[in-house]
Amino acid sequence: MALKGNLRDFTISQLLNLINLARKTGTLVVEGPGEIARVFFREGKLSYAAIEQEDNSLAAVLQRTNRITNSQYRLIKEKASRMSDKELGLVLINAGYVSQDDILVSLQQYFLAVVRRLFTWGEGFFRFDQGELSMNGKITVRIDLENLIIEGSRQLRELEKLQEEIPTIDMALKFTDRPGTNLRNINLSVQEWRVVSFVNPKNSMRQIARATKMNELEIRRVIYGLLQAGLVEIIRPAGVVPPAPGRMFPTQNKEEQKSLINRLIERIRSL
Amino acid sequence: MQTVKIVVTGPFNAGKTEFIRSVSEIDVVSTERRISTEPEKIKETTTVAMDFGRITVDEDLVLYLFGTPGQKRFDFMWEILSEGMLGFVVLVDSTRPETFREARSILETFRAYAPTPYVVAANKQDNRDAWDIDDMRLALRLDPKVKLLTCVATNKEKVKSVLLELLYGILAEMEEGRS
């Protein structure tokens, strides 16, 4: 089924979060302001990224990261334009121009820069085409998305949007039980670490804000990032008596209440 | 005569009125108004106070279905409508990811009103632009324990199964002694 929409309504960090949590494999195509980005994912990790209007060849990436000179770049474009990135990479390594690490680090920097550029696109149609990737000689990497998600979430600044995401700060937080997420591998800011240290079903977000001396906007912004990265989830605070739900049943007798629900079930089945 | 109620909520144009209409034995009592603002003109009218449907169970018991207004500016009605509900259904349009954020917000708001059971229904799943149910669960940040059900609000059988899942959830919570 379709996974498409507009960045105006569903942000890149939300998309990355979804791809990360569902460990998706496929291609995200984003049509931004005058540019089209293609970002490839394998099992929820960033694998490759490119802007269609740019030279995304390995030679261009190495030149941009100063691993090869401008004249070397021009020479490669003249003499080896038909080589795939994998073939060119092997030639350059064997000739001693660059190391395998140089290539991988340069590509990672470029792919991350492409995704970071998407964070600045306020609008743009996106679609995710699920399925195995056909990379045609391109070199792929494996980059965890959690740090990118946190980075993207930090850019959400508007209180109104944050209030929609977190309508009340009287609820509490708990860490999610998601395997594979290690807090130590995620680059949290000092402010985020301070909030993380108070995450406990007994502490409401309001109490955490007070303890960390943050205002409502600040606490919402930090928690939004942690939520987006799938590190925490919102729960009702432990030990707090929930508001009385009002008179739900016309009777206080538990057996009569169950009987009433069973009668409702029978009636709806028979509709 | 005993009466109980279930609330059907969700963002603007999620299909709440159709949902109630599909199972109500009376013509749904709607408080609809012609839409005046441009962004919301994807349909002609919208609910401004509530929708109201009824299912008579037997001579002693009636179930009322209340649909909340979807537009944010009428959210003062939500708390009033949620008072005393058995549970609630959050209806989400599977074809409009732009409403997912609001759906999450509505869900959190209703959870804060009352600790009653709820289900989330992914409506318009018959549309080819509908998001996959697993993707919606992640986008809506739903706990794996929360029931997320496929739905077509104009299809009576689908609506019945959503209501039944909610009632099974209420019964299960009663068995566990939580309500």
Q: What does this protein structure show overall?
A:
The complex is a heterodimer of chains A (271) and B (179). By secondary structure, chain A is α+β, with helices and mostly antiparallel strands. Chain A folds into two domains: 4-146, no CATH class; 156-235, Winged helix-like DNA-binding domain superfamily/Winged helix DNA-binding domain (Arc Repressor Mutant, subunit A). Chain A is built from eleven helices and seven strands. In chain A, a hairpin with a 4-residue loop joins strand 2 and strand 3 (36-42). In chain A, helix 2 runs antiparallel to helix 3 and helix 6 (146-154) packs antiparallel against helix 10 (216-228). Chain A is elongated and about 85 Å long. Chain B is an alpha/beta fold and 179 residues long. Chain B has a single domain (2-175), classed as Rossmann fold, CATH 3.40.50.300. In chain B, 31% of the residues lie in helices and 28% in strands. Chain B has five helices and seven strands, in the order E-H-E-E-E-H-E-H-E-H-E-H. Chain B has a seven-stranded mixed sheet, sandwiched between helices. In chain B, a hairpin with a 2-residue loop joins strand 3 and strand 4. Classes of the chains: A alpha+beta (271), B alpha/beta (179).
